[in-house]
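Technical annex, item 7. During the second reporting period the consortium partners agreed on a shared format for inverse folding records so that results from different sites could be compared directly. Each record opens with the tokenized structure and is followed by the designed sequence. A conforming record, contributed by the partner at site C, is shown below for reference.
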């Protein structure tokens, strides 16, 4: 497997406020059931514990999955089982957002995120006129330095430029896995990222957090 082809695939859902709890739970469990598909390296789904931004994108749930290549992601997207679950649960969904990015590694040799881990995903929009490859490259280089100096509380850290056309204008994404909720709460990502503020539309930044459930 070429490490350069690994893909993070994150989907955020805003479920309707009047959705029945039983239907929501069934939806989450059906999405988690897709973990068994041949194309999927890893997949989980969960309610959000926190969603912080100023754009009124009030998402409620997340699906996080990993793939070896764009071809396997594409095959998953059009697979009849995946499509049937989308059709069955579409009436519950008010809004959604999908972001995909390439990463050179996940958690070493491990591609799954252990249950009980706490995950923080940050989505950035670049300022108008800064969406070129030079700026993305500078940010990626800075992120590489941050990754090299992370504390042991962060077990995984990936980042990259979004290539999904369902990303609502978000240009880049960062995913950090913490060993526990308490370590996530103690982590101060904002200070690490201050060096990039000149490039970012800070008011549009979206940060979500969730705890990985048991499968």
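Designed sequence (site C submission):
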């Amino acid at each position: 497997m070429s490490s350069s082809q690994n893909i993070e695939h994150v989907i955020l859902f805003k479920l309707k406020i009047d959705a029945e709890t039983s239907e929501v739970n069934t939806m989450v469990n059906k999405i988690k059931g897709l973990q068994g598909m041949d194309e999927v390296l890893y997949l989980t789904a969960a309610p959000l514990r926190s969603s912080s931004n100023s754009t009124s994108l009030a998402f409620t749930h997340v699906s996080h999955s990993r793939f070896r290549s764009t071809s396997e992601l594409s095959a998953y997207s059009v697979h009849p089982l995946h499509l049937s679950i989308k059709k069955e649960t579409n009436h519950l969904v008010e809004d959604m957002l999908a972001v995909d990015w390439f990463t050179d590694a996940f958690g070493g040799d491990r591609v799954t995120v252990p249950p009980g881990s706490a995950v923080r995903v940050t989505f950035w929009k670049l300022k108008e006129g800064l969406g070129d490859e030079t700026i993305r490259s500078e940010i990626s280089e800075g992120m590489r330095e941050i990754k090299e100096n992370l504390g042991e509380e962060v077990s995984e850290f990936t980042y990259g430029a979004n290539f999904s056309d369902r990303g609502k204008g978000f240009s880049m994404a960062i995913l950090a896995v913490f060993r526990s909720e308490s370590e996530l709460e103690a982590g101060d990502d904002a200070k690490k990222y201050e060096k990039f503020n000149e490039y970012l539309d800070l008011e549009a930044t979206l940060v979500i957090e969730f705890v990985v459930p048991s499968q």
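The beta strands are 7-15, 42-47, 50-52, 61-67, 93-102, 118-124, 154-161, 172-178, 206-211. Residues 133-148 form the longest helix (16 residues). All partners now use this format for quarterly exchanges.
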